[in-house]
Amino acid sequence: MKINKGDWVQVYNVLLKPEERAPQVPEDTKKVPFEMRVNGYAQKNAEIGETISIKTLSGRIVEGRLVRRFPSYELSFGNHVQEVSQISQGLKTFLFGGNNCG
Known about the structure:
The chain is of the alpha+beta class. 19% of the residues lie in helices and 35% in strands. It is built from 2 helices and 6 strands; from the N terminus they run E-E-H-E-E-E-E-H. The strands form 2 sheets. It has a 4-stranded antiparallel β-barrel. A two-stranded antiparallel ribbon has the order 1-4.
């Protein structure tokens, strides 16, 4: 896939290999690399998989392997947990004296 200079992209780097991880990290953490993914604007035309520099929104120049064009944020607090909703309802009733759920 062709990436143009100025496109919003994501780069990737391995910052620490598993054997380079700190000795105090949990065992399951030691088994995987410490990775970095950063979004920014491509500083040159490139193809997915190439190493390029990007300029982040804060103005930093970061180099990494180009992995995505036009990445989106996929943040989540996880799946809905019914018990949390029930606790929330109970707290609202206790604190505010009624059902304040809209």
